[in-house]
# Entry
Amino acid sequence: MTQYEKDLKAVKQNGYSLQFVKKQTPEICLAAVKQNGYSLQFVKNQTPELLRDMIDNNIPIIRKYININLNLLPDDIQLWLEMQ
# Structure
């Protein structure tokens, strides 16, 4: 089993294990956040794509832990966040 496979398996079981993943990929980060939305705080590269994939399920968590400038988000997501 590769390190990637081990990391993916770990975050699918416990999203908080993302904090120990050295090589975070978008797939690993998304799996972690889907398992536990609070693991967003451990995502090193919070891309607009990652946020778009998980925004519907985790609005309060995103507002608490988002580390990127909201101006970098696509207009539709900015508008949607403002309406929540």
